Amino acid sequence: MNWLLPEYLADALPAEAARIEQLRREVLDHFGACGFAYVMPPMLEYLESLLTGAGQDLELRTFKLVDQLSGRTMGVRADITPQAARIDAHLLNHVGVTRLCYCGSVLHTLPASISAGREPLQIGAELYGHAGIEADLDIIRLLAGGFERIRLPISRIDLGHVGIFRALVEAAGLPQAAEAALLALLQAKDVPGLTEACADVPTPYREALLALPTLYGDAAVLDRATALLPALPAIEAALNDLRHLTTAAADLPLSIDLADLRGYQYHSGVVFAVYCPGYPAAIALGGRYDGVGQAFGRSRPATGFSMDLREVVRLVPAGKGRGGILAPYAGRDKVLATHIAALRKQGETVVELLPGEIACEGGVCDRKLAFVGEHWIIEAIQED
To answer: Which part of the chain has CATH 3.30.930.10?
Structure first.
């Protein structure tokens, strides 16, 4: 019972916290092995930094407060991605490609879904400075490799491209209000509503917009899209990007969904969502968001992804970890103290009982140190 905590906030108790930390380390080690440098942005920033440029979509999700030192409005970060973009554009200022990764808590004013918490542990990676589709492929493979590292199977990776819908809206000359309405209908998969809203859209763009919800499935969808959608340069480029990904990563469970426009205001190209067996929503989201650093003084191509490690840990099969060793209180027994120190140096968990303590609660230890003859030996703890 978490009556002491606000709604949609929860403690991570020892067993869960240990698993989260283990997965955090494994995923970050995987990112590091692929050349992604770890950064740790602050929890609080001036509000304009958190909501600048691509971060505008986060305004409703961001807790706000007044800085007692400056009198300016600050925000508790709801997403680390804008912070990573600021670091790349404003602090590192590299000329070429920059690869960054991160892991930290973010805070949301409202939960993203009924099953989500308001304090996700966001872990992700971002690649700046390369506009080619090769960077998107690198990011998708990095993500797939992370799931393989933690032994969590992927059922599918849905690919989309926001440039297709954007090109259709622009070519049809639709006003911003109509664009927003069509976007909401597509995101809700509301085909009857979409049909009604497209009544005044000129041909062939009306037919193309109505076709988007039907364009999902395997790579063959891209051929159907070529036949159904207008031959606009932006659409042809988007379909070619998706073809490149499905061909170059044929070993991954890729699928296509051209009506998946989550993060439309944020993204600028390829978008993707990762699904795992037994989990109804996407467990990881990512895509291209070029120009995000412009507000920080330097526009840069960018692509990346993030996920909530608290949610991920619920899906990873819980293996039986090695327990610790229960040791008597050493006190002035230098031999025992030396033996305990040596075991800890070897990587063992050794719990030294305090005077009067007879057991270690929480099931931490499955072995014990026993003095047999003239030596300390390790014995299994027999369950009653």
So the answer is: 1-151+284-321, 156-275
Q: What is the 3 state secondary structure string of the chain?
A: CCCCCCCCCCCCCHHHHHHHHHHHHHHHHHHHHCCCEECCCCCEEEHHHHHCHHHHHHHHHCEEEECCCCCCEEEECCCCHHHHHHHHHHHHCCCCCEEEEEEEECCCCCCCCCCCCCCCEEEEEEEECCCCHHHHHHHHHHHHHHHHHCCCCCCEEEEEEHHHHHHHHHHHCCCHHHHHHHHHHHHCCCHHHHHHHCCCCCCCHHHHHHHHHHCEECCCHHHHHHHHCCCCHHHHHHHHHHHHHHHHCCCCCEEEECCCCCCCCCCCCEEEEEECCCCCCCCEEEEECCCHHHHHCCCCCEEEEEEEHHHHHHHCCCCCCCCEEEECCCCCCHHHHHHHHHHHHCCCCEEECCCCCCCCCCCCEEEEEEEECCEEEEEECCCC
Tens of pLDDT, residues 256-304: 999 988 888 888 899 999 999 988 899 999 999 998 777 777 788 999 9
User: In this structure, which CATH number among 3.30.930.10, 1.10.3080.10, 1.10.760.10, 3.40.50.970 belongs to the domain 156-275?
Assistant: 3.30.930.10
| Chain centre to alpha carbon of residue 119 | 13
Per-residue pLDDT of 40-87, as tens digits, reads: 999 999 998 888 755 556 888 899 999 999 999 999 999 999 899 999
Name the superfamily (CATH) of residues 1-151+284-321: Bira Bifunctional Protein; Domain 2 (3.30.930.10)
At 368, the amino acid letter reads: K
Cα angle vertex 77, ends 76, 78, to 5°? 115
CB 286 within 8 A of CB 303: yes
